[in-house]
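Recall the central idea of this unit: under ordinary conditions, the amino acid sequence of a chain determines the structure it adopts. In this exercise we apply that idea directly, starting from the sequence alone.
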Amino acid sequence: MSIRIGIGMFGWPFGEYGPQYLWDWIDQAENSDVDSIWLTDRIVSTELNLEPIVALSFIAARTKKMLIGTSVLALPLRNPTILAKEIATLDYLSEGRMLPAIGLGTEQRSEYEACGVRREERAARADEMLFIMRKLWSCQEFDFKGDHFTLNNVTIQPKPVRPELPPLWVGGRSQAALRRVAKLGDGWLASQVTPDEIALGKNYIEEMARHNGRSVDTDHYGVILNFALADTSETALALAQPYLIPDKQRKDINAKDINAIGTVDEIIDLINRFVSAGATKFVMRPTCPPDNMFEQLSLLTEHIIPNYHQ
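Accordingly, the structure predicted from this sequence is:
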């Protein structure tokens, strides 16, 4: 079991700074032991949010080592053939570094309307899309007739680099999301979850996967964590507090169980609890003012990552 730690972005964390700030941050990560970089997905937004496939193509061109992923891509808002082509192209040009993680998207009805999708159909669309994308990546010609998509003798090129295909991870913490992992996914990437919830979810996925005649690699369980590191818990919380997005459904959960905010020892202790629960991959999102983004990345690479990457 290999523990790997990557970094993530929620929206645009660089404030009024322009693209050069992102490129400098990417360069800093690429020149360290950061495993991967992940971008979130918001198509409709009043704030700056990069479209992840386009932005990752720029990042792929600037890097050679880091894996590149989506955390997570709103699958139902897109067309499966176009998306399969985009991901395969990005995987080909990055020499097999693409890690697509998908979800159903936000609860914002206007975003589905703006993309020509009925929100009530999002789960069924996502299931068909997962099946279609795999087939387009692995078959020379493919026919499909579903409730939402029809393909007749369709093929795409290039194919993804890896013979085993890019692993499609599924986000979410609902039972429906866990069933989707077990039935159609290659891994689980969860956010706003506790170590105990990871353990319970992993057991549920394994049981459901066996029921479907499948298995999910034990190395394919990941967690997205907001993080802020400082000499004291109070200083770390002061950095992060203005940038934490409250989850109204998580009022009963201790924030320290779902956010890596505190001292080095506190963050390592939380990661170790997730590892004991079965998580192996971590997406750490700096949760701090724009001027602290580079410092937080340095602290992560100097004090946290060396405990896990061997």
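DSSP finds ten helices and 13 strands in the chain.
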